[in-house]
Amino acid sequence: MEPELAKHLFKKPITLKYPFEKISPPEGFRGKLSWDADKCVGCGLCVTVCPSFALEMIGKGPTAEFRYYLSRCVFCSQCVSTCPKDALKMTNEYELADYKPVVIEFKRGKS
């Protein structure tokens, strides 16, 4: 055991010093959801297919807005693959921990 200990005593550490050294997520990573209001037609398919009820639609049609319950989301990407207009995307944002449930309001810009 002593030779093994001596061998590793002077080597560089293998782990990263998180959060000071951040890693970039791999390709295809599914992080926090983003919504493009300009592409969304308000069909509600994303809300219907969500297995964890993380999306709630407020209103109907092209004026609809959404609530995204981040603490409910299982990052399965069902909503993204179902959207006929590609209005939803999964970002690379992964630092999502919080002490209280997070609700994100997706609102349309007022022109």
Account of the protein in words:
With 111 residues, the protein is of the alpha+beta class. The protein has three helices and five strands. Strand 2 (55-58) and strand 3 form a beta hairpin. It is elongated, with a radius of gyration of 20 Å.
Concise synopsis of the structure shown:
With 111 residues, this protein is α+β, with helices and mostly antiparallel strands.
Number of domains: 1
Between the first and last Cα atoms, what is the distance in angstroms?
A: 70 Å
Radius of gyration: 20 Å
Q: Predict the CATH topology.
A: Alpha-Beta Plaits
Give the strand order of the largest sheet, numbering strands 1, 2, ... along the chain.
2-3-5
CATH architecture: 2-Layer Sandwich
| Approximate shape | elongated
Number of helices: 3
Q: Could you give a short account of the major beta sheet?
A: 3 strands, antiparallel
Number of strands: 5
Identify low-pLDDT runs. Answer: none
SSE class: alpha+beta
Secondary-structure element series: HEHEEHEE
Helix content: 10-25%
By CATH reckoning, the class would read: Alpha Beta
How much β-strand is present in the residues?
15-25%
SSE layout:
Layout: H1 2-9, E1 33-35, H2 45-49, E2 55-58, E3 65-69, H3 78-82, E4 88-90, E5 103-106
Antiparallel strand pairs: 1-4, 2-3, 3-5
Considering the chains and any ligands shown, give keywords for the structure.
111 residues; Alpha-Beta Plaits; 3-stranded antiparallel sheet; elongated
